[in-house]
Amino acid sequence: MLTERRLESLLEVRGLHTYFYTYEGVVKAVNSVSFVLNRGEITGLVGESGSGKSVTAQSIVRLVKAPGKIVEGEVWLDGQDLMSCSEHEMQSVRGRMISTIFQEPRAALNPLFTVGDQIGRVIQLREGCSRKAAEGLAIEVMRAVEIADPERRAGAYPHELSGGMCQRIMVAIALSANPLLLIADEPTTGLDVTVQAQVLDLIRLRVKSAGSACLFITHDLGVVAELCERVIVMYAGRVVEQGPVAEIFSNPRHPYTQGLIASTLRVDINKPISTIPGTVPDAVLLPSGCTFHPRCPFAEELCEQEEPSMAAAGMQHRARCHIVSGRIEGEMREDAWELAVAQAGGTDSFLQSVQGDTTDPEVGIE
Amino acid sequence: MSNVNDESFVQIRNLSKDFLIRAGMFSHVRLRAVDDISFDIPKGATMGLVGESGCGKTTAGRCLLRLIEPTAGEIRMGEHNLTSLKRDQVAQIRGRMQMVFQDPGGALTPRMTIGAILREPLDLHTNLNAHEKDQRVRQLLFQVGLQPDHLSRYPHQFSGGQQQRIGVARAIATHPDFIVLDEPTSALDVSVRGQILRLLTQLQEEMGLTYLFISHDLSVIKHTCSQVAVMYLGRIVETGSTAEIFNSPVHPYTQALLSAVPIPDPGQRGKERLRLPGEVPSPIDLPPGCRLYSRCPYRRDACLEPGPPLLQVADTHRAACILVDDRFRLGGGNVAAALSPPAQETIRM
């Protein structure tokens, strides 16, 4: 799936480590994360809650809150090293070069000002134009994101608008700057599907027409399949697999990615409900070796002892697994996940073997 | 779902619920959250109630258990007519109908241990002695896949998936016949969601439970329910077997809802979709006609008249759209053809 045109990289993240120093211990929220974002491409960052996807985004714009700290790593945006920028320089990077959209649109808007004011303020700061002119531009921006009757809606406060409308306004504010990079952190979680479809269409259209890069954070593989060109899968602070979207979905190589795809329910086909046994590990006490090994149906002794490194799994496709690197003999078949679970005696007994023996209630009573 | 028989166990007839919203110091406006809905659930079956936020699905579920009082209509569960019972009589049979809530952490009292949480329904609804209660609590933990040493722990010491297991254990503690599941998996991660869905299906088979499964997530509904009702702005717009609703949806709203669900397969990106413009209108002072009128690509003047009622499409399949009616049908007798979206209304992506 290698296209003729050369992809131009815009953002490069190298060896990023972001740790949180809590009372319970050090949480390695982002652990040696590296990736590249290309211009004109939407990259999906996928993972379950606590996998470190949002902290990765916060680290790129250097907005990690205490007790979190970027310990190590480089972030290059269009040839500029963001980690060596002063706070003052970062302020001009945020909003102008990198825009962010967050999950809760109402929480991100100021409830005391009308939405027209808030869009206008951003435009005024950036363009250095008069307030009057900014107001006019704000209405144009609202029209561009298909808000009906923008002249009237510009005078509305955030609580007077629906969640979908607020999110479209956030998209409008974020994209009005024509940023080089758009970071969208679960922008459609909490929106209804029909409204989600409208917001996704809008993001796709605007990113493509502006030639920006987009890092789209989500836990929904359906959204990734519909929107993204490239996928990064994170688990417990680490990138476990990355590659082109078609490759990831048709030929996932990391057992976690396989499990995620297998447990995603679909409206278009019938299949038995599959699941990944166990839960995401405690962030302070990560398992030894491969952090996924306690939940992995393919795990062997080596996985417990040694953490795998990223290995090539295909064209621009890499996965962090001993089977992919060839250190463990293993056959990765398309139905490998179902097969391995079945061999372990069905999900439920596999589940029990993972969670520890469940005592028979009759025996457990004195 | 082996225990399903044709006899309906839960019967809802013309259920409505109004809320009065303060509009001024002395004036109120009426918000009809649930508007004249009727459906049956056979014993041992799962009925899915699906719709977007604000469609009235949660209100309907709460009315069913009389956690809130319905404004009009009749609810029957087995031999009981729930709407004619007094509140204290409802409390007496509450052990037979239970609910599992969306936010598993918020639904468990943070100051009570798991043992105390599970013992509470037994104290209220059963005459078991202390030893029997102890035994039952341990059995419940085993049934939902938790361990006996979890009994002395507090809710915050568990993950979301485990908290929901506790919520399920509490719901089944009193051997209920009927459980309303209100978005039981929407707060959970994908990998854990499957575990809870399997648990619910397994318990249904073991205990012969009847479920009302409320969700906004069509893929979850498809994999757990035998029948589905789709709600929009307080009304049921389409109902039928899961296969009927998912394979041949007739109502434009159901079609749009289904085609808006992202498919986790990049190969299907180019498929045609039916997109509804605009957003759900305010549920206050709705016009008498079809609720979808303002967003429907097939709308015509007749849609503004009061109604439409649920019209039969096939066997158990009914839809509230005048295009199902012969008089308004576009192309011959084929409903599906009449309703396939007009070319200019679909967009390619």
What is the structure about, briefly put?
The complex is a heterodimer of chains A (366) and B (349). Helix content of chain A is 37%, strand content 21%. By secondary structure, chain A is α/β, with parallel strands linked by helices.
How would you describe this structure to a colleague?
- The complex is a heterodimer of chains A (366) and B (349).
- Chain A has 366 residues and is an alpha/beta fold.
- Chain A has helices spanning 53-60, 87-93, 105-108, 115-127, 131-144, 150-153, 163-176, 193-210, 221-227, 245-250, 255-263, 301-305, 322-325, 336-343, 346-355, 361-364, and strands at residues 9-21, 26-38, 42-46, 68-77, 80-81, 98-101, 181-185, 213-218, 230-235, 238-244, 311-314, 317-319.
- Helix content of chain A is 37%, strand content 21%.
- In chain A, strands 6-7-8-3-9-10-12-11 form an eight-stranded mixed sheet, sandwiched between helices. In chain A, strands 2-1-4-5 form a four-stranded antiparallel sheet.
- Chain B is of the alpha/beta class.
- Chain B folds into two domains: 8-232, P-loop containing nucleotide triphosphate hydrolases (Rossmann fold, 3-Layer(aba) Sandwich); 248-347, no CATH class.
- Helix content of chain B is 28%, strand content 23%.
- Chain B has ten helices and 14 strands.
- In chain B, the strands form three sheets. An eight-stranded mixed sheet of chain B has the order 6-7-8-3-9-10-13-12, with helices on both faces. In chain B, strands 2-1-4-5 form a four-stranded antiparallel sheet.
- In chain B, α3 (114-125) crosses α4 (130-143), α3 (114-125) runs parallel beside α5 (160-172) and α5 runs parallel beside α6 (190-207).
- Chain B starts with 7 loop residues before the first strand and ends with a strand.
- The chains are: A alpha/beta (366), B alpha/beta (349).
- Chains A and B meet through α8, α9, α10, α11 and α15 of A and α4, α6, α7 and α9 of B.
